[in-house]
């Protein structure tokens, strides 16, 4: 008889799956895993949500979740849900620290902040030298979720994970 | 026309707008004047593609004849596409592409904002998600309108030329079909008159700040997209977009 699985084990396995575009973040850090359900002893249902509606990494994420949990002997269904819409507020604090250490400036404020709503310029800290003297080069960066900035002190160009 | 048919037509219209604009913007890949613009235009294209996928998938579900997003994108002919003519106008130079984007972004921004109050659950989720992305598109195109319009004499002239070409395509964005009227009454889609007011106010204020002028089109308005009458550009867009799946319908990634 199969031993009943504890949900915390499922989360531990999911923690091993990383964002294919920002490999320093796990899918849990990123906040794209919205629901984990144990339907039966050997049946799991995972609900994920895209960061951006055109995110090309969704298929890879879905496949990796399926492969990882199938390897543990489960029958896995992965559902995609767009509502409620993903927000950078769901990124974990640990995820934000990992991003900065990786060289990507984490989202600078909560989307419920007044500065976000009124569109006022926000202060983005350089992930290299921690200077706050930075300028935006481009709204859009190497992936849909990032903007491009440069530091006017250390002169490094860096990605900023923009708030949505 | 039943409510379901009306909703199918509306989802196609919105989905085709996003799909054809994504295809147009994708043509810029590797051709923009600087890397940042190249990346920005293709990022916007990707967001539009994401919208198109959600809308066409939902359209197929509502139609309930088993058509997938791919069936709708790749196996319909020109007369079956429901996009507004504005999104199919050729890219021209960067001035025309960014002006087309600006005129469309403001339309999309206000429509999505209003769609968050829809009685239709899918449209609420879709609009809430997409509005976050379109807010960035709107900032990008608005910045460029001001920077190039109020830039050098040359950039100003190019932007004015772009508005002169594109302006006659804008009234169609607010057209209401018989089906749309049914949906508006049911609270599923917003009142387009209100959207038109908000669009006019914002577009005119940015154009004025960019030191540009609204052209006199002598009452001429280009329309037809909602009934499948497209410009001469549409066939070429579809030929390129549909070539592979029509040649090899079984091809998979």
Overview of the molecule:
The complex is a heterodimer of chains A (164) and B (253). Chain A is an alpha/beta fold. In chain A, 25% of the residues lie in helices and 23% in strands. The longest helix of chain B is centred in the first third of the chain and has 29 residues, at 35-63. Chain B has helices at residues 3-26, 35-63, 69-74, 94-115, 121-149, 153-166, 178-185, 192-209, 234-247. In chain B, 46% of the residues are buried. Classes of the chains: A alpha/beta (164), B mainly alpha (253). At the A-B interface, loops of A face helix 2 and helix 5 of B.
What labels describe this entry?
heterodimer, A: 164 residues, alpha/beta, GMP Synthetase, Chain A, domain 3, 4-stranded mixed beta sheet, 3-stranded mixed beta sheet, 5 helices, 7 strands, 25% helix, 23% strand, elongated, B: 253 residues, mainly alpha, Ferritin, 65% helix
Short description:
The complex is a heterodimer of chains A (164) and B (253). Chain A is of the alpha/beta class and 164 residues long.
Cα-to-Cα separation, first versus last residue of chain B: 38 Å
The CATH homologous superfamily of the largest domain in chain A is called Fe-S cluster assembly (FSCA)
The portion of residues assigned to helices of chain B is 55-70%
Subunit arrangement of the protein: heterodimer
Low-confidence stretches of chain A: none
pLDDT averaged residue by residue of chain B: 96
Shape of chain B: globular
User: What characterizes the major β-sheet of chain B?
Assistant: none
CATH superfamily of chain B: Ferritin, core subunit, four-helix bundle
Q: How big a fraction of the residues of chain B is strand?
A: under 5%
Binned strand content of chain A: 15-25%
- What's the SSE pattern of chain B? HHHHHHHHH
Radius of gyration of chain A over all CA atoms, rounded: 18 Å
Helix fraction of chain A, binned, reads 25-40%
- The CATH topology of chain B, please? Ferritin
């Amino acid at each position: 008889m199969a031993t009943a699985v504890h949900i915390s084990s499922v989360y531990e396995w999911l923690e091993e799956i990383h964002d294919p575009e920002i490999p320093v973040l796990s899918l849990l850090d990123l906040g794209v895993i919205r629901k984990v359900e144990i339907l039966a002893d050997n049946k799991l249902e995972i609900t994920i949500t895209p960061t951006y509606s055109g995110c090309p990494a969704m298929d890879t994420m879905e496949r990796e979740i399926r492969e990882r949990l199938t390897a543990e002997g489960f029958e896995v269904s992965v559902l995609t849900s767009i509502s409620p819409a993903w927000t950078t507020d769901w990124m974990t604090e640990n995820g934000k620290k990992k991003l900065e250490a990786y060289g990507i400036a984490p989202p600078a404020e909560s989307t419920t902040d007044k500065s976000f709503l009124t569109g006022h310029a926000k202060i983005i800290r350089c992930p290299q030298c921690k200077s706050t003297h930075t300028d935006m080069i481009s709204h859009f960066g190497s992936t849909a979720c990032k903007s491009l900035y440069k530091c006017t002190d250390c002169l490094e160009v860096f990605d900023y994970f923009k708030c949505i | 026309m039943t409510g379901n048919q009306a909703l199918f037509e509306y989802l196609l219209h919105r989905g085709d707008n996003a799909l054809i604009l994504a295809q147009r913007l994708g043509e810029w890949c590797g051709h923009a004047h600087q890397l940042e613009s190249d990346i920005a235009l293709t990022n916007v294209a990707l967001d539009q593609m994401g919208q198109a996928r959600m809308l066409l998938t939902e359209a197929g579900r509502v139609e309930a004849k088993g058509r997938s997003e791919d069936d709708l994108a790749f196996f319909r002919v020109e007369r079956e596409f429901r996009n507004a003519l504005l999104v199919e106008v050729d890219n021209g130079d960067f001035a025309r592409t960014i002006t087309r984007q600006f005129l469309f972004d403001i339309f999309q921004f206000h429509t999505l904002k209003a769609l968050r109050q829809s009685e239709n659950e899918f449209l609420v989720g879709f609009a809430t998600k997409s509005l976050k992305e379109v807010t960035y598109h709107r900032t990008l195109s608005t910045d460029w309108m001001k920077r190039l319009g109020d830039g050098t004499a040359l950039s100003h002239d190019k932007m004015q030329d772009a508005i002169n070409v594109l302006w006659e395509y804008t009234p169609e964005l607010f057209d209401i079909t018989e089906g749309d009227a049914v949906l508006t009454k049911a609270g599923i889609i917003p009142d387009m008159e209100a959207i038109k007011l908000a669009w006019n106010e914002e577009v005119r204020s940015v154009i004025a700040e960019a030191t540009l002028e609204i052209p006199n089109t002598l009452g001429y308005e280009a329309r037809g997209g909602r009934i499948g009458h497209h410009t001469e550009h549409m066939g070429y867009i579809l030929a390129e977009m549909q070539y592979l799946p029509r040649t090899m319908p079984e091809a998979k990634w």
